[in-house]
Task: structure prediction
Amino acid sequence: MNRKTRILIAGCIYGGGNIGDEAILEGLLEYLPKDAIYSVCVEGEGRKYAALGLQPYGTDFWQLVRAVRNSDTVLLGGASLLTDPSGLEYPIGYCSRILRIAAILGKPCNFIGIGAATLNHEHVRRIAQRFYPLASRFYVRNSHSKNALCREIGVSPDRVIEICDPAFLLGSKVNLAEGQELLKTIGVRRTDGRPLIGVSVVNEGFEKGRDYKAKIAAICDLLVERLNAEIIFLYSEIREGEFFDQAASRDVKALMKKPWKEVPPNFFDAKTFASILAGMDCILTMRMHVIILSAITGTPTATIVREEKVTQILADLDDRAAGHISSLDVEGVFAHIQAKLNNRAEHSKHLLSQVAMVSERAVTNRPSLGDLLENKQSKNVVYRWFDPLKWFVEKVLAKINRILSKKRAA
Result:
């Protein structure tokens, strides 16, 4: 009997508390070949993934080595894996580490369902240019990502295939009744003439202070005052800490004058979270995967743009933003939401049509097991063995050069 192919899914920080990352993983498992055994690199407790039939590994260096060694092929899956808002460490440093390990062990590696954007740091670009081309193919979520990938690190266009963000593939898993039951537990019941507005905000850079939060609070107050709306805060990123969504929501709620409710910050699976979104009339959001999970349910969003990937997804959905984080107009966003509520059926139909089109693109370009096992970089095996040593020596020499330069300047 032939042994089943073992596929490692890495790239995202699965298990870290971001439901968007979980949506990517759940979507990939729907999308990828069924006749394989899957493992996944996760942060924290792995029992949840073991229960799904996945072999969990950690994300430290030696766990990554073990995970790659025990696989036949590696997939760096989903998320914006060519971007550098946080500098080098994640995602480019993390993915480069996995690519180097796969290269040394002679394992094929592909990016799948990823996004790419303009890089802001030259030293990060140099690392990506060195290690990202070790991948065999790049399955990206849209043409914008393809263009950015080719432009930023020089990947040949014939190695880049357009599919979609894997979260788009979860539409058939949404259960409206489940979402309604969960909303009832926090005292939310649908009432004629009272729109339910979900709110998902992000702590987007401390240098921007409370300005955009104050405006979001004012928008929520207007929705309650003028439309008798019920405001329900949602968390697709459930980690605590001053940088994450719970802290951002606390700031907004403290600035509001009108009442609100919230769905507790539980680490829902993506299908359950999408089912909750399906119970809303409109979602005011800053998060990309909230946009996607809303779209697969036909729930309109009023999107506040905060980064390039959000603009890319809105283009895929042929939808326009309600505003930009740096220049929010309270009355303008209110009017945007009101217009979507007044024409909700039309907006919902349009969203579902766009989701079907994006999903079909992914189905058309679905990789086979043979594609995922093909190692297009096999000719560089000798280089791969010596590359980590070369990289280390270059780092040491660069450090010595900086020290000598400082001494000469002194």
Confidence is low (pLDDT under 50) at residues 378-385.
